[in-house]
Amino acid sequence: MPIRQLSETMINQIAAGEVIERPASVVKELVENALDAGASRVEIVTAGGGLNLIRVTDDGSGIPEQELSLAIARHCTSKLAENIHDIRSLGFRGEALPSIGSVARLSIRSRTASGDSAAEIGIEGGRVSAVKPAAANRGTTVEVRDLFFATPARLKFMKGERAESSATSDVIKRIAIAFPAVRFTLAGSDRSTLELPATDDSPEGRLRRVAQVMGADFPDNSIAIDAVRDDVHLAGHVSIPSFSRANALQQYAYVNGRPVRDKLIAGAIRGAFADVLPRDRHAVTVLFLTLDPAIVDVNVHPAKADVRFRDPGLVRGLIVGAIREALANAGIRAATTGAAGMMAAFRPGAASYAHAGPANGHRSYEAAYRASGSGFDPARSSQRPLDMQFEGGGFDHTGGRNGAFGESDQAAFDAGPLHSADARAGLDEAAQTLLGTALGAARAQVHENYIVAQTRDSLVIVDQHAAHERLVYEALKNALHSRAVPSQMLLLPEIVDLPEEDAERLALHSETLARFGLGIERFGPGAVAVRETPSMLGETNVQQLVRDLADEIADNDTVDTLKGRLDRIAATMACHGSVRSGRLLKPEEMNALLRQMEATPGSGTCNHGRPTYIELKLADIERLFGRR
Q: Which residues lie closer than 8 Å to 53 by C-beta, 6 or more apart?
């Protein structure tokens, strides 16, 4: 087949295959155009998951009538001058509108602030219509109908209406976090309305917008991040370790205000939380990187979803270091969701309407009623009041009373002082200074595993095994990394064959690896010789370890694989060497454990990511008893 020039329509459809993946991709491009035009209000309407209709309306600067035809031509843009390395807008390719118009029915209606009237242009499957007058307020309305009608094969790859609608919502939320001063509305016949009122660009305004998107719980369970290294600024919020998710969908990252899904940033977040979260849990994060546009390349992906940093090690180190420092400085904090779960567990269950038995909402009454078969018998209830006397006692079934309010039963409680369940029984009152600490003063140990402590305004329940496990692990880890890791000499060096570039990378990191107990050196072209391995690893698969390290160095320029293995061994040793469940503790031992927790970073979770304590505020306790 001879070489020939493709038609303009075919070129645009090929471009659409890269840029317009699904309806959410169209919404992303159109909303970015609106924001680049300075809009303070963006309204999005969809139907059929976005396949039938997408309409984006903004109050931005608008497009002059004479430029409408250029707006739908390829590689025409107002956002880029002559320097491709100085990109300060969300869009810059000039491909979105012609690509959309080549696979859908597109119309653009726009009016500038100085224009007497609006103008409209349309494009259907690549065929452009003439510009005509229209009526509209200042701003632009872009309407896309019958997406992929010109390329029906693409429709076979679309998911269901609900999935496409959900993807569009996620796009809007990701963009909205970066623009808190803009009001976003997403509505349509295929969804419930999402409305995000405008706040402001201050740190408080950004946090309010984050709460609109991620829920009101996040600000109360997050830590602020603010760090600078070599003119790269990192700001935002990360969740405390005990507030985590089962997936990474609530990790939001922005580079110069642009939402990105970058594996370097995701890996840095995972590395920063490696010590405090298990592998199947993920932190909730909102991070903003601000740096010179000249040292980040955003032109590496057609949809601008990925970026490339000139110095990836600097960015990764900044993220990991800033998050770990923030976690260490935050002290000990428990997630508010733990207290909410405890409150829910304490509340009586909802009343059952499936039978005519008592509907007071207590599960034990319902269970007694169902077990009886014929009805509820209060005489056999474990919850009967003290003054109820049956079978000839102080209460009969006809309503008569003997003994009034059961003074004989009450007398048992008035006979003398009751024994205290307090850990301080027989001791002097705990110092007021202990009540003012984060975890308070130990009051009791229950079920030989849980320490009950009191602060001035809350009740704290501590899992003694999980808490001590974290303390032992941190002590082992500090001892491990404060000096060179002991190594064991191999009787015969292990020769590992590798690609030449991997062998060279390992050789460059040999000094760092030696500090972790792994002695390697070059052994001819495309091979390394391993002469020493960390003693803690015992017998290990040296070949696999070296290859894993080579892969990680190629991806992230770090040797965290080896460090992670050593830390996992320390975690196992901590688990077996900590205070076991079922061990009785003295009051002074319990208080000592609480004080060590307060002084140890990350002690809010154990090595497996489980919470070490739950705090219930006094106000919540009063609500349980109807005092508030």
A: 45, 46, 47, 143, 144, 145, 188
User: Tokens 């002097």 — which residue?
Assistant: 428
Token duo for residue 484:
């060179």
Whole-number pLDDT of residue 268: 93
Q: Give start and end residues of each alpha helix (H) in 415-463.
A: 432-435
Query: Could you tell me the CA-to-CA distances from 227 to 175, 268, 325, 341, 524 in Å, in that order?
Result: 23, 15, 10, 34, 43
Residue 194 neighbours by CB distance under 10 Å: 18
At 431, the amino acid letter reads A
What 3-state DSSP class applies to 170? helix
To which H or E segment does residue 162 belong? helix 161-178
DSSP 485: P
Task: List, for residues 168-192, the tens digit of each pLDDT value.
Answer: 999 999 999 999 999 999 998 877 8
**Mean per-residue pLDDT over the chain, rounded:** 81
> What DSSP line would sit under 292-349, residue for residue?
-GGGEE-TTSTTS---EES-HHHHHHHHHHHHHHHHHHT-S---HHHHHHHHHHHSPP
CB atoms within 10 A of CB 17: 14
Q: Which residues pair with 185 in a beta bridge?
A: 43, 195
Residue 339 has which token pair?
A: 């207290």
pLDDT of residue 340: 67
Longest dimension (CA), the chain: 110
The structure's pTM equals 0.72
Does residue 534 register a pLDDT over 60? yes
Task: Kindly report the number of other CB atoms within 10 A of residue 307's CB atom.
Answer: 22
Range 344-353, long-range pairs (CB < 8 A, 24+ positions):
346/624, 347/624
